[in-house]
Design a protein that fits this description.
- The chain is α+β, with helices and mostly antiparallel strands and about 375 residues long.
- The chain has two domains: about 25-175 and about 275-335, Antithrombin, subunit I, domain 2 (Antithrombin, Chain I, domain 2, 2-Layer Sandwich); about 185-270, Alpha-1-antitrypsin, domain 1, CATH 2.30.39.
- It is about 25% helix and about 35% strand.
- It has helices at about 25-40, 50-60, 65-75, 85-95, 115-125, 140-150, 250-260, 280-285; strands spanning about 100-110, 130, 165-180, 190-195, 200-215, 220-225, 230-240, 260-270, 270-280, 305-320, 325-335, 350-360, 365-370.
- The N and C termini lie far apart (about 55 Å).
């Protein structure tokens, strides 16, 4: 497949976010979003990148106006001044050789897109424009971009895209990091795990080390830092009747952060390797995001008449004795609510001509005149 050109807003460079960018507000809203998504999980194993979802809707927020913009802010907890500087700061703080964050905008060839919207995407999200033909190979091009940004952990984001698609916004996050304190491979043994459908034996890893640890009334938490990066996995285990989704509630996550202290921990944790596919439209609509998905949405800053017709995320994670590899990609598909009336009118209601041609050479294979469409014989005569 030929490389797709990337266009950028003229004269716009990546901005340096201010020191007071509202990162804490975005972090709180993203944690709440993750909890709401987890509470609506429909699979036994579930995985989501709330940050990837938030990135994608923050980008579309750059072209939203009126109540559409206000509703996005309410659902995602975006700050009143706009989330763009915060997401720019988050990318700069988290993106290392172990974490890769990418944003992409794919537009139908010839679709005019608002300059102010393009400038925000270029300056705060590092996103250029990839013009594509959605009726021909739009899904293939978006999926190829996702594969590249996630080191092929996510082979495709969209199974298909409507030929009527006008624009796709996508975010991809890829992480590959080694534990600062790796588990000993020889210490992994098959042990029981109390799954909801009954116990099953799984490869259980073991680690004894000085680790950040916290405990609440009905949970324990241990932090597993990654080598050479300001990143960590926090494993939160219920000690009472808490369901797992309750353990990613913002108040629990905040309590873990406040309570962490060093302890000599004997940790047993299974290897795991799985992925998720989430249709975000139904879930986000239940959370109150409705205008974005309806004809009449105000995304005039991008292009008149657009609304979000689909929103999906695919994510995958592998955890073993050496570390973690995880990836997520989120995409929004946008259509135009209605096309403007045609500016050119052609009525073949008088005698007319036609030609069937080979456009590259201009050679006419057939040529004809239609003077009476009701005459099906065309004056045809049988040859004796």
């Amino acid at each position: 497949m030929a490389a797709v050109p990337t266009l950028t807003a003229e004269g716009v460079e990546r901005a340096t976010p201010p020191g007071d960018a509202p990162v804490a507000d975005v972090a709180t809203g993203t944690a709440r979003l993750g909890h709401e998504l987890a509470a609506r999980a429909t699979t036994t194993n579930w995985l989501c990148s709330p940050l990837s979802v938030a990135y994608t809707f923050a980008m579309v927020r750059a072209g939203a106006g009126g109540e559409t913009a206000a509703e996005i802010d309410r659902v995602f907890g975006f700050p009143e001044g706009g989330p763009h500087a915060a997401f720019n700061a988050i990318a700069r703080a988290t993106a290392t050789d172990r974490v890769h964050i990418a944003n992409g905008l794919f537009t139908q060839q010839g679709l005019p897109v608002g300059e102010a919207f393009l400038a925000v995407l270029a300056s705060h999200y590092g996103a250029g424009v990839h013009p594509v033909d959605f009726a021909r190979d739009g899904a293939e091009i978006v999926n190829a971009w996702v594969r590249e940004q996630t080191a092929e952990r996510i082979p495709r984001l969209f199974d298909a895209l409507s030929p009527a698609t006008r624009l796709v916004l996508a975010n991809a996050i890829y992480l590959k990091a080694e534990w600062r304190h790796p588990f000993a491979e020889r210490g992994t043994t098959d042990e029981p795990f109390a799954r909801p459908g009954g116990p099953v034996r799984v490869p259980m890893m073991h680690l004894s080390a000085d680790l950040p640890y916290a405990a609440g009334a009905d949970w324990q938490a241990v932090e597993l830092p990654y080598k050479g990066a300001d990143l960590a996995m926090r494993v939160i285990v219920p000690t009472g009747d808490q369901t797992p989704d309750a353990l990613v509630a913002p108040d629990v996550l905040a309590a873990v952060t406040r309570s962490l202290g060093s302890a000599y921990v004997d940790l047993a944790m299974p290897r795991f390797d799985y992925g998720s596919h989430i249709d975000l439209v139904r879930i986000l609509a239940a959370l109150g995001l409705r205008r974005s998905f309806a004809p009449g949405a105000d995304f005039g800053g991008i292009h008149p008449g657009l609304h979000v017709d689909g929103a999906v995320q695919r994510a995958t994670v592998t955890v073993d004795e050496w570390g973690t590899e995880a990836a997520a990609a989120t995409g929004l598909m946008m259509l135009t609510s209605m096309r403007p009336p045609p500016t050119t009118v052609v009525r073949a209601d008088v005698p007319f001509a036609f030609a069937i041609v080979h456009p590259p050479t201009g050679v006419p294979l057939f040529a004809g005149i239609v003077a009476d469409p009701s005459d099906t014989t065309g004056g045809r005569r049988d040859t004796p």
